[in-house]
Design a protein that fits this description.
46% of the residues lie in helices and 24% in strands. Helix 19 crosses helix 24. It contains 29 helices and 32 strands. The chain folds into six domains: 180 residues, Beta-Lactamase (2-Layer Sandwich), CATH 3.30.450.20; 104 residues, 2-Layer Sandwich (Beta-Lactamase), CATH 3.30.450.20; 111 residues, 2-Layer Sandwich (Beta-Lactamase); 84 residues, Beta-Lactamase (2-Layer Sandwich), CATH 3.30.450; 160 residues, Heat Shock Protein 90 (2-Layer Sandwich); 118 residues, 3-Layer(aba) Sandwich (Rossmann fold), CATH 3.40.50.2300. It is found in: Cell membrane.
Length: 993
């Protein structure tokens, strides 16, 4: 019995010691390690997602993506991430404003602000997450939440959250207490099985020892050694947890796998025990076999290497493989323990870091903004090419130098030193995480405005600062220009009404509208709410609704789409419509903004009209200049023709038939003279004789003449304002305007109709923007001439004032009538407009400025009877470059008893006057001559003889150079072509003084 107890007691003590060790110490320690490992796992997973956000934020700051697109892509990647044994564990994203941004299983909460979202224990979840994020930036939070994708089950959960400061997002993931407890129970069950196996083994050994009655000491030692090896083997298994652990025997068969192996790789223990695990990728098998052979040959029996292993579903995991050989008596290897540490997340993080570094280098090298890094001593450690372009320093001129003496104006050095001292202690400061505007200094000493963004970076326990610098000189200049522009137009812009409506995405019914909608549409809030735009008849063309809907489905949004709305009162409004989708009151809605641009479109059309008017005026100016020159030259020709015919007609004893021919030629010359006067009027070479004119009286005279020339089937009606104010005008030119417009109206009504002439007093502010444009006076008289004729299309209206444009047949019009009218009205400081449609008649509206008190109404000139001039044989010097005019003038004057000397230019006239000036009683001189010209010749004559008498002639009217000549001392002016009797009369009067 004693020997039995001596054999059994050690075995029992071993069992007790094993139980106490395993269940009293090892299992609690392993459980603590598993929990710590789990917490570390979710912390690393959260950091991985945080790095994803940082990667996209770097792309935003590098200008590769805009912020909205980067956030959309980041959420898409995070939403798709899953892990865990069932692939159901997930990540979520909240905002610091307690808005649920993304949750893969609670999409119904996305976009909502949940300030009081409580779990079953009454804990404010989002508030708790935000508190941890604001106070610590990251940390663990415990609460109750739905079991993965099963909303009906609520389980206790611990999550690790981390704040992503650039976007104000809180990201996190968590583990359920039930998962951890299930893993613990599985481990306890396995350990219990191991304990039971050990107990059974001990019992068998005890029975065997009892049956053998304490066999020899050597056999007992062998049994104890077997027990020791067993305990060592399973102790190694336990110590390797929670990493996957596999125990192989010497021939490579699996003796044991721990629960972590099943959790990570997917095989249950009963599927692999006693066999081999085929989970080494083909490209890793050779290296793995070499490592196994090496560890068996190695004296220590230990070896670690990095490799990959496949899970049951074929996914590759990066692992750190640790091999440990266990040996028997004499050091013979019995097998090995393999510990597999999953480093997949670490590899991904390292790869993400590498990619991030590469992107940073690429972005900084190609960035338009300067990127500068300084160390804890304030010395520059990084300087990109853009910084060189901004500051003028090459990288080798800056690296290792202190930043602030180099780049900051001296007046800011003290503030910089103080701020940098605060930064060096904590990595924080007023400039960190903010966008600042400051003044920087270039290499040449020039100061410029800059924009600076500073972030902190901790390396080796010390704080580094990274700054992104942008030269905002051009932006500041643009902002100043914009500020000045906004100052000019702020009042106008603040009064522009914008219509805003929120409508249900599916039904289109209005859920909310603003006052601008009511102002624009004319519908009250009560009328519009609950109804669609189609119900309200808002679209002038209902098909526009379908066009907008198709564009929204295709592009996802609408920006500034032109649409014509119809207000409640029937007004048509040209609007620019923008539409966005968003969630309102928990349901998908549309936000529609409409800007009434009717006035803008009208202004654009008016601008086009004014541009066309300007081009027309420029064309008329060019053609007028040409017409004036032609008229001047033509007058010289007419002067010769008229002069010769008058000489022929005045010859005594002339055959009557020849006399009649001469009279006919003279009559034709007079008609040609009238045409030339019209050309001069068109070219504005005839200055209007402005005076007070009663326009109603002018109309009465014109109507009397029109009634004698217009067919009876055209009825003339007048509607004249009895209190009409006098206008500042030339009566003759006004009569010409009325006759031309009346004749045009007659031609537009070949079958008869009505010609209406109206007058009224108007003020500039009462006129339409088009009519009032460029008018300078305050008061005007409007003359309106309308007919009921065939009208014109828009294309014809653009050309009606163009010179020589006519719709009449060949030989039926010159195309100068309306051009002359246009020139006369412009010359009077007025404006003329035309309104017409085919088949609807035509209206001409003319605005003429009201006469001021300084003008008087002139009396009709007194008729002077021309008497035969009496000559006393005086000498007259005739100066003209046209030989025919010299010939006619000489013949006429000599016939009247004068002595005549001729000259072809001003230079010859001066030479003649120098030698014979005392005998010359009068100089008749043309103004438009080659060489020095008539006006210069007049000045030189006056310089030779201040008492010289000069009579000037010209093919132009009495303005411009003629006025200058009269002012310079000429006694009179006679316009070509003149009647010979008029020339004799003016010559006689000039000689008589």
């Amino acid at each position: 019995m004693k020997r039995y107890l001596g054999a059994v007691l050690p075995a029992l003590l071993s069992v007790i010691l094993f139980g106490v060790t395993v269940f009293g110490f090892l299992l609690p320690e392993v459980e603590s390690q598993i929990i710590a490992k789990k917490r570390e796992m979710i912390r690393e997973l959260t950091n991985t997602v945080w790095n994803i956000l940082a990667t996209y934020d770097a792309q935003v700051r590098g200008g590769l993506l805009d912020k909205d697109e980067a956030q959309r892509r980041a959420l898409g990647r995070i939403r798709a991430l899953r892990y865990g044994p069932e692939g159901k564990d997930y990540f979520w994203v909240n905002g610091l404003n307690e808005v649920m941004i993304m949750h893969p299983y609670r999409m119904d909460l996305e976009g909502q602000r949940l300030p009081q979202f409580k779990d079953i224990k009454g804990k404010d979840l989002l508030h708790a997450f935000v508190d941890v994020a604001r106070q610590h930036g990251e940390g663990f939070v415990s609460y109750y939440w739905q079991w993965k994708d099963e909303p009906g089950q609520l389980k206790e959960k611990t999550s690790y959250i981390k704040l992503f400061q650039p976007w104000g997002w809180v990201v996190g993931t968590g583990l359920y207490k039930d998962d951890v407890e299930a893993e613990m129970r599985a481990m306890n069950r396995d350990m219990s099985l191991v304990g039971a196996a050990v107990l059974l083994l001990v019992t068998l050994l005890s029975g065997y020892l009892t049956y053998r009655e304490m066999r020899a000491e050597g056999e007992r030692a062998a049994a104890q050694e077997v027990l020791r090896q067993t305990l060592d083997k399973y102790r190694a298994v336990l110590e390797a947890s929670p990493d996957p652990v596999i125990v192989y025997n010497y021939v490579g068969l699996v003796d044991y796998v721990n629960p972590a192996f099943s959790r990570v790789f997917g095989w249950r223990a009963d599927e692999v025990l006693g066999g081999k695990i085929d989970f080494v990728p083909d490209d890793e098998k050779e290296a793995t076999l070499a490592a196994i052979n090496a560890v068996y040959d190695h004296p220590d029996g230990l070896l670690s290497f990095e490799s990959r292993r496949l899970t049951r579903d074929g996914r590759a995991r990066n692992v750190m493989v640790s091999l440990a050989v266990y040996r028997g008596d004499g050091g013979a290897p019995l097998g090995m323990v393999v510990n597999l540490t999953d480093i997949t997340s670490m590899k991904r993080s390292a790869e993400a870091l590498r990619e991030s570094e590469e992107k940073f280098r690429s972005i900084s090298a190609n960035a338009l903004d300067g990127v500068v890094m300084i160390d804890p001593q304030g010395r520059i450690t990084f300087w990109n090419q853009a910084a060189t372009a901004i500051f003028g320093y090459a990288a080798d001129e800056t690296l290792g130098r202190e930043l602030h003496p180099l780049l900051a104006p001296p007046r800011y050095h003290a503030d910089y030193v103080k701020a940098f001292a605060e930064f060096g202690d904590s990595g924080t400061g007023k400039a960190v995480g903010r966008m600042l505007e400051l003044v920087a200094r270039r290499k040449n000493g020039q100061e410029f405005p800059a924009e600076l963004s500073v972030s902190s970076l901790q390396l080796h326990g010390q704080w580094y600062a990274v700054g992104i610098v942008r030269d905002i000189t051009e932006r500041k200049q643009a902002e100043e220009a914009l500020r000045q522009s906004e100052s000019r137009y702020r009042t106008i812009l603040e009064t522009v009404p914008y219509s805003i409506a929120i409508s249900d995405l599916r039904s289109g019914a209005n859920l909310e509208i603003n006052d601008g909608f009511c102002l624009l549409s004319g519908h009250s809030r009560q009328d519009a709410l609950g109804k669609t735009a189609l119900d309200l008849g808002l679209y002038n063309r209902p098909e526009d609704h379908l066009t907008l809907r198709d564009q929204l489905e295709r592009d996802g949004e609408i920006n500034g789409q032109p649409v014509t709305y119809r207000a409640k009162d029937g007004r048509l409004l040209e609007c620019l419509v923008s539409v966005r989708r968003f969630v309102y009151a928990g349901r998908p809605c549309l936000l529609s903004v409409a800007q009434d641009v009717s006035a803008l479109r009208q202004a654009e059309r008016e601008q086009a009209r004014l541009q066309a008017q300007l081009q027309r005026a420029q064309r008329m100016e060019a053609i007028g200049t040409l017409a004036g020159g032609v008229a001047h030259d033509f007058n010289n020709i007419l002067q010769a023709i008229s002069g010769y015919t008058q000489l022929i007609g005045g010859h005594p004893g002339l055959d009557q038939k020849v006399r009649r021919y001469a009279e006919d030629i003279d009559l034709a010359a007079r008609r040609a003279t009238d045409l030339v006067k019209r050309l001069l009027t068109f070219s504005r070479k005839v200055e209007p004789a402005l005076q007070k004119v009663d326009l109603n009286r002018q109309i009465d005279h014109a109507v009397a003449m029109l009634e004698r020339t217009i067919p009876k089937m055209v009825r003339i009606t007048t509607r004249l304002d009895p209190d009409l104010k006098a206008v500042k005008a030339d009566p003759g030119q006004m009569e010409q305007v009325l006759m031309n417009l009346g004749t045009n109206a007659r031609d537009a009504m070949p079958e008869g109709g009505e010609l209406m002439i109206e007058t009224q007093n108007v003020r500039a502010e009462d006129l339409s923007p088009g009519a009032a444009c460029q008018l300078t006076a305050d008061e005007y008289v409007m003359l309106r001439v309308s007919d009921s004729g065939m009208g014109m299309d828009a294309e014809t209206q653009k050309k009606i004032f163009d010179p020589f444009f006519t719709t009449k047949g060949v030989g039926q019009g010159t195309g100068l009538g309306l051009s002359i009218v246009y020139g006369i009205i412009e010359g009077h400081g007025g404006r003329i407009s035309c309104y017409s449609q085919p088949g609807q008649g035509t209206v001409f509206e003319i605005c003429l400025p009201v006469a001021d008190d300084s003008l008087t109404e002139r009396e009709a000139p007194e008729v002077v009877t021309v008497r035969q001039a009496q000559s006393n044989g005086e000498t007259i010097l005739v100066v003209d470059d046209e030989a025919a005019i010299l010939d006619v003038s000489t013949e006429l004057l000599q016939g009247a008893g004068y002595k005549v000397i001729t000259a072809r230019c001003g230079e010859d006239a001066l030479e003649i006057y120098r030698t014979r000036g005392q005998a010359i009683s009068l100089v008749i001189m043309d103004l438009g001559m080659p060489g020095m010209g008539g006006q210069r010749a007049l000045q030189e004559l006056k310089r030779l003889d201040p008492e010289v008498k000069v009579l000037i002639s010209s093919g132009y009217s009495g303005d411009g150079p003629v006025k200058d000549s009269l002012a310079a001392g000429a006694l009179g002016f006679i316009m070509k072509p003149y009647r010979l009797g008029d020339l004799l009369e003016k010559a006689h009067l000039a000689i008589q003084g």
